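I'd like us to work through together how a protein chain folds, taking it slowly. To get us started, please write out a protein record for me. Label the sequence line and the structure token line clearly, so we can match residues to local backbone shapes. Once you have written the record down, we can walk along the chain together.
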Amino acid sequence: MHLEEAIRSRKSVRRFLPKKVPRDVIEAMLELAARAPSGNNIQPWIVHVVTGQVKQAISKDILDAIKTESDQHQAEYDYYPEEWFEPYQARRRAVGFELFEQLGIARADREAREQQTLRNFEFFDAPVALFISLDRRLSLGSYVDLGMFIQNLLLVARAHDLHTCAQAAFAPFHRIVRHHIPLADEHLLVCAISLGFEDLDAPENKLITPREEVPGFAGFYGFE
């Protein structure tokens, strides 16, 4: 797949087919994604790949925790600001409204919206999940490096006719995840990535989020 096609076709898929992804394909994807740049080549990314019963056990334990102790789970880093402001607030709301509209969920239907949110923790039925972490003793630059690795991974998936959904929603449940994978104490859980084949008939997968036009975020200086 041409790089431009991979970038333009990448999206967050929220329903996957129950079709297995071979381990050798995942290993090849990780090997290529690891060509991402990093400051002084420290390569801070750490990946745990789960499937089958391990993935199901993580899903069950998190869903049980949400029912009984949701207020006891916090992420170890701040992904979003404490208070939203424009233009980010509007963009955030718009994508939420568009997703629920695709699913036919009314804005006032709080129960249906919550059920859709819980689908995160079922990995949207994806057969494979990758938990991405880094050493908490590293600094902010390593988050930049990790972002480039994750982007590589999402694009490489498209080259294998696979789709993904990157999910920071798992970060608050790092203590539960640690029960199932050997995530060292010094490793900070950043996100999970659901991986598999897109369900083309799913209405939620019709959502294509808009992007700001270039003049809205870029300036050009010194050109003749």
Notes: The domain at 3-79+122-207 is CATH 3.40.109.10 (NADH Oxidase). The helical segments are 3-9, 23-33, 52-69, 88-103, 110-118, 140-159, 174-178.
